[in-house]
Automatic annotation (TrEMBL):
<feature type="transmembrane region" description="Helical">
    <location>
        <begin position="212"/>
        <end position="232"/>
    </location>
</feature>
<dbReference type="InterPro" id="IPR000522">
    <property type="entry name" value="ABC_transptr_permease_BtuC"/>
</dbReference>
<feature type="transmembrane region" description="Helical">
    <location>
        <begin position="160"/>
        <end position="181"/>
    </location>
</feature>
<keyword id="KW-1003">Cell membrane</keyword>
<dbReference type="GO" id="GO:0005886">
    <property type="term" value="C:plasma membrane"/>
</dbReference>
<feature type="transmembrane region" description="Helical">
    <location>
        <begin position="318"/>
        <end position="336"/>
    </location>
</feature>
<dbReference type="InterPro" id="IPR037294">
    <property type="entry name" value="ABC_BtuC-like"/>
</dbReference>
<keyword id="KW-0813">Transport</keyword>
<keyword id="KW-1133">Transmembrane helix</keyword>
<keyword id="KW-0472">Membrane</keyword>
<comment type="similarity">
    <text>Belongs to the binding-protein-dependent transport system permease family. FecCD subfamily.</text>
</comment>
<dbReference type="Pfam" id="PF01032">
    <property type="entry name" value="FecCD"/>
</dbReference>
<dbReference type="GO" id="GO:0022857">
    <property type="term" value="F:transmembrane transporter activity"/>
</dbReference>
<feature type="transmembrane region" description="Helical">
    <location>
        <begin position="16"/>
        <end position="39"/>
    </location>
</feature>
<feature type="transmembrane region" description="Helical">
    <location>
        <begin position="103"/>
        <end position="122"/>
    </location>
</feature>
<feature type="transmembrane region" description="Helical">
    <location>
        <begin position="267"/>
        <end position="283"/>
    </location>
</feature>
<feature type="transmembrane region" description="Helical">
    <location>
        <begin position="128"/>
        <end position="148"/>
    </location>
</feature>
């Protein structure tokens, strides 16, 4: 516990703790709403009654909807939201670019393309898909890091986003060609490829736990070096940190988080942009404070968007990726149209 407190220490603890508790309370209310509201015939009243009698054999259809349909997608939404929010904050910190986001820079597209290939080649286990998605995300991360090191691209946030858009477009085109080539693959991932929590099961989370545990451990180790790196490489070196090693480990963490989230719910854009943006607005630029707030903010965004996706076109559902794009696009436009991009 001392190590965790030391690594993730922050200034003004009372204000941050109060803010974190408030966001956690909001998340609890949104999670309850996720269980009560849906696109089917089970309304809030019946769902609430089934929730009250969860430990009994009564409930019938309502109890089935809660336990087999809504609760699994809630848990997956919580994990995916936290993973994408934290991954976005880390990616923005390591590239020093407030526009850096896994969906915009090709990281999510790399994971999705890798999963598409895995399904084409007959991969039918969730564990294999998670591993393949993480390798694809790692490839996308390395491309982003290489682009960020290029003179004229890494120094310009807009050019870096354009480079990421080109990579994403290329990977999406290749994925589309595969879907046209193989009908089985198209049927398997048609709804998944736009990002959705519908139809997911709790078993889909099990393969994520080892990699998420490793990622959490690395984040605890990297929080202070990243805060030092934000002051400049020379300052970080003077404090005993190794910037290249820090960047490499951050890329590994981002690949683990984004790859796992993409394997579970498909590529969900803009969460990694909106969540860190909101966290910095609430807590300031310190990466340690930002990471703490991304933990509840990510699930808040994803689960809220999932609730809306069920209710806007009943009895059908909109893909979750469509809702997050509608939320994130105005944020992206607002940041780009600002007089100057905030420095990280």
């Amino acid at each position: 516990m001392r190590v965790l407190t030391h690594c993730l220490s922050f200034g003004k603890p009372r204000s941050l703790i109060g803010l974190w508790l408030g966001l956690t309370g909001l998340l609890a209310a949104i999670a309850l709403s996720s269980l009560l509201y849906g696109a089917g015939d089970i309304g809030p009243a019946r769902a609430w009654q089934a929730l009250q009698h969860m430990g009994t054999a009564s409930g019938g259809e309502a109890r089935f909807v809660l336990t087999e349909l809504r609760m699994p997608r809630l848990w997956i939404g919580l994990v995916v939201g936290a993973a994408l929010g934290i991954a976005g904050a880390l990616l923005q910190a390591v590239t020093r670019n407030p526009l850096a986001e896994p969906g915009l820079l090709g990281v999510s597209a790399g994971a999705a393309f890798a999963v598409t290939l895995a399904i084409l080649w007959g991969a039918d286990t969730a564990t294999l898909r998670v591993s393949v998605a993480q390798l694809g995300a790692l490839g996308g991360c390395l491309c982003v890091l290489a682009a960020a090191r290029l003179q004229g691209i890494g120094d310009d946030p807009i050019r870096l986003i354009l480079a990421g858009a080109i990579l994403s477009g290329l990977l999406h085109s290749l994925s589309s060609l595969i879907l046209l080539y193989d009908q089985y693959t198209a049927d398997e991932i048609r709804f998944w490829v736009v990002g959705s929590l519908a139809g997911r099961q709790l078993d889909d989370l099990v393969p994520l736990f080892p990699s998420l545990g490793i990622a959490a451990l690395l984040i605890v180790m990297l929080a202070r070096p990243l805060a030092a790196l934000a002051l400049g490489e020379h300052v970080a070196i003077g404090l005993g940190h190794h910037p290249r090693l820090v960047r490499l480990l951050v890329i590994v963490v981002v690949a683990l988080l984004v790859g796992g989230a993409t394997a579970a719910a498909g590529p969900i854009a803009f969460v990694g942009l909106v969540v860190p943006f909101a966290a910095r607005a609430l807590a300031g630029p310190d990466i340690r404070r930002t990471l703490w707030l991304c933990l509840p903010l990510g699930p808040i965004v994803v689960v809220s968007a999932d609730i809306v996706s069920r209710l806007v076109v009943p009895p059908s559902e909109l893909p979750l990726g469509v809702l997050t794009a509608l939320i994130g696009a105005p944020v992206l436009i607002g940041v780009v149209r600002g007089r100057r991009l905030p420095t990280l």
